[in-house]
Amino acid sequence: MGCGNSALNSKKSEKALKAALVIQNWYRGYRARLRARLQYALAIFESVEYADEQSQMQLSDFFSFMLENYTQIRKDDPDLSNQLLENTKDRQEYIGLIEVPDSYDGPRLQFPLSFTDIVLLVEAFKNQKILHAYYVLEVLFQTKKFLKQRPNFTHVKTSSSKGLTICGDLHGKLDDLFLIFYKNGLPSENNPYLFNGDFVDRGRNSMEVLMILFVSFLVYPKDIHLNRGNHEDFMMNMRYGFTKEILNKYKIYGKKILQTLEEVYPWIPIGAIIDNEILVIHGGISESTDLNLLHRIERSKMKSVLLPPMTGYSTEPEKKKTGAIIMSGIITSKDSSSEQLPKHEWEQIVDILWSDPRGTKGCFPNTGRGGGCYFGPDITTTMLNKYHLKKIIRSHECRPEGYEICHDGKVITVFSASNYYEEGSNRGAYIRLGFGMAPEFFQYQVTNSTCLQPLHQRVSVMESSAIRILKERIISRKTDLTHAFQVRDHVKSGKISVTQWAFSMESILGLNLPWRTLSLHLVNVDKDGYVDYMSSFQDMRIEKPVKEAESAIIETLYRYRTDLQMIFNIIDSDRSGLISMEEFRNMWKLFSSHYNVQIRDSQIDELASTMDLNKDGSIDFNEFLKAFYVVHKYEKSNKSNT
């Protein structure tokens, strides 16, 4: 009897074990599928982000073209040239007449600043107070004054009793900065920090982040260190949000703040060297990176990565008499050689601000971003050996865990903005360094929820957001994609293979993505594996400001809307938001000529005239561009959830 029960129990245990293994294997597969979907979503976000940056970098060619054709612009439109001719204002002219009213209930800073002011700012910003323009401008002028005394590379020493905290990109995410301070303490002479660039853009609180960092630097100039990132650039700010944030928060003094910022950015150091062993730069290196040269470069001449040295700049006498060409506050001198870096020096700074590490040996152009390079482990080893260094710490790339170690431990990426693409997309991190000690990594993730959402919910939200962004890219190239599909549809059936569809998507959009996998989310595929290629554009359309306009015109304007907005923001020097019809026409002609955009002048005139509702000869260009947006009729149910 006992033996029978024992055998029965053994069989039950065996069944239970098999069932547990089945459940365990299913769960592992389920988690793996979720992780794969998460990786696909992150790949979409990253590819679109880098494609935008590539487009931004390509604008540098246009601005060179614009300035090199300046004589012609001046002849056609003298008012435009006058807007580009200004002089830098001094501190007294900017803040001498600004008064802080008694009704102001935000933080009131006391100069010279002290630790109390850091605490005051942090508490005020937690309560969503806005720092008055008077204090913002004073902080900016003081920061510029102190930064001018700093070398290109800050040399930092750690000790057994005093380590160093290194933070990566913050991108205006104030809650992440608060969480870092909560976990690691406020900056002080006993708690030094190094912030490795990209303080601003993308996030909603870039001004607050910048003010906390600058005030901390002014209070502890020997213990708080700042490196310049590729977003400490006034042209980048126009595209990625900081300019808009400033103009929204400081409607009266916004222009003054922007112009002062343009003078501060170039003075931020371009790197740091810790204990003569660790190089800290925002982006990376290239095979031609020369630290000795970078130590000597006049970094203040690096106004913007989008204003490269102008090789074809005219030097005729009439041009020299005009003084300085200024673009939204940044000066290109009448003697361009004295105010611009030589091309090889400019490229050196672009490399350290924009480059990314890769596992492949060698150094090759960073085609993803359009600036800097991809550098392999051999390039890292050669450079470190040459300058007797041990590691590179850099930022610049969102990493799922907040940090990443590569090149046999010689390159560390740290990224401090959590939830960068979407809620739950990534963790943030910072590094603690002590003398002679291995780096310590601290991770976190800001959330407003009392508990973290289940993984499947977070993945679904990210996936939906990523697909939506990708669909907007697709609809902006509808004409080109349709033509590419039809070329491969030899029998005119309206269908092509998934492989043909994927090849067309990658070649037209220029996004290196797993298109075959993404086809499940983007198009209708029949049982034989053929794609109804016109379903690529289902459920969405670009809103047309003029019903009769050709779709190709709408797509072109939508595709270049951000570039055009930047260009016209430069023209709109008084920040009124209004552009004259003549300015619109002249700059469009220059833009279309440089980019070889095939739209007739009469078609642009028609669109512009339609937007001139009150027929006063000017258009609200921001409203004009807002007319071009993608309408999603409805969000399809997520196929992968079934």
UniProtKB/TrEMBL annotation:
Q: Which domain of life is it from?
A: Eukaryota
Enzymatic class: hydrolase
**What Gene3D superfamilies does its record include?**
3.60.21.10, EF-hand
Keywords per UniProt: Calcium, Hydrolase, Magnesium, Manganese, Metal-binding, Protein phosphatase, Repeat
Task: Choose any GO biological process term that the UniProt entry carries and state it.
Answer: detection of stimulus involved in sensory perception
- GO MF annotation terms: calcium ion binding; iron ion binding; manganese ion binding; protein serine/threonine phosphatase activity
PROSITE patterns in the record, alphabetically?
EF_HAND_1, EF_HAND_2, IQ, SER_THR_PHOSPHATASE
The UniProt record lists the keyword Chloroplast: no
Q: Which residues form a coiled coil?
A: none
Catalytic activity reported? O-phospho-L-threonyl-[protein] + H2O = L-threonyl-[protein] + phosphate; O-phospho-L-seryl-[protein] + H2O = L-seryl-[protein] + phosphate
Limits of the EF-hand domain: 559-594, 599-634
Which SUPFAM superfamilies has this protein been placed in?
A: EF-hand, Metallo-dependent phosphatases
Give the family, as the similarity comment puts it. Belongs to the PPP phosphatase family.
By its UniProt entry, which PANTHER family does this protein fall under?
SERINE/THREONINE-PROTEIN PHOSPHATASE 5-RELATED (PTHR45668), SERINE_THREONINE-PROTEIN PHOSPHATASE WITH EF-HANDS 1 (PTHR45668:SF1)
Name the UniProt record assigns to this protein: Serine/threonine-protein phosphatase with EF-hands
Q: Which gene encodes it?
A: PPEF1
